[in-house]
Amino acid sequence: MKRIRINFKKWLGRVYTVVMWSVCLYAVWIVLRIAGQVFLFASFSIPSDSMVPVLRPGDYVLVNKPLKGARIFNVWDAAEHRPFEIRRLPGLEEFRRGEVLVFNFPYPERWDSIGFDVLLYYVKRCIGGPGDTVEIRDGRYRVRGIDAPVGNTDAQERLSRLLSKKSGREEMVRNRSYYTFPYDSLLGWTVKDFGPLYVPARGDSIEMNRNHYLFYRNLIEWEQRGKLVQKDDGFYLEGRRITGYRFRENYYFMGGDNCFNSQDSRYWGLLPECYIVGKATRIWKSVDPYTGSVDWRRVWKCIE
């Protein structure tokens, strides 16, 4: 009996050692996985056809975070809708016009103020960056001073042909996709003719006037965490009259490659830079949403 007890104790000790090592290794794996997601790479699934043909529903894209710099912020404060600050680590390069970017959608709850949802991500193409002036003429994107086309030009040409017909315009009106930001009857901006809209860069100054109030009110209120109102004698930020404003952040104009069906900057305005997770670099997996089979032709495809 004595020998049996001794062997049993040894067996318990070995089991305890194995369990503890397993728990420690699992904890290390969890920490490394979280660190990898925060600082190195992240995966996002594509649920809609707004980026067809480059990205399709069922694609899983890889975001290279060191390329542009990983973001650091308090996830718990963001989830509880408490004030928080987003900081970005140094990256290897800046965000560029024409890149496909993943970002937190800036209007998750209401359209008149910028919000943040840690679980709601969009993927679109950067049409214009800080300092650019974006416009749309006959359904085609234009960036002033840039001769090269931007975005999916094939889709823009098809949209232009559709909008040249009265029936096409009426169809988009019925689908509530014809009229655009800032939804002002005097400006009359549409998916056919939009802008020009200047995309602010950090440090840019603007004069406060009616148009700038329409274009940038949400951005100013988000930066200042205060209310901006227009009165007969001018513009008031938290009760203080202002005649101009200097921006604290960089902004971007984002557009879907499928410009017939994309909830993008044409409809909700400009995107703060700190909302951008990073550049989508590759499709690491692609699953047919109807059959569940893997489309091996798209696996590890470079996103351009």
Automatic annotation (TrEMBL):
EC number(s) recorded for this UniProt protein: 3.4.21.89
Bilayer-spanning residue ranges: 12-32
Example of a GO MF term: signal peptidase activity
InterPro entries: LexA/Signal_pep-like_sf (IPR036286), Pept_S26A_signal_pept_1 (IPR000223), Pept_S26A_signal_pept_1_CS (IPR019758), Peptidase_S26 (IPR019533)
Keyword Transmembrane helix: yes
PANTHER family: CHLOROPLAST PROCESSING PEPTIDASE (PTHR43390:SF1), SIGNAL PEPTIDASE I (PTHR43390)
Name by which UniProt lists this protein: Signal peptidase I
Gene source species: Phocaeicola intestinalis
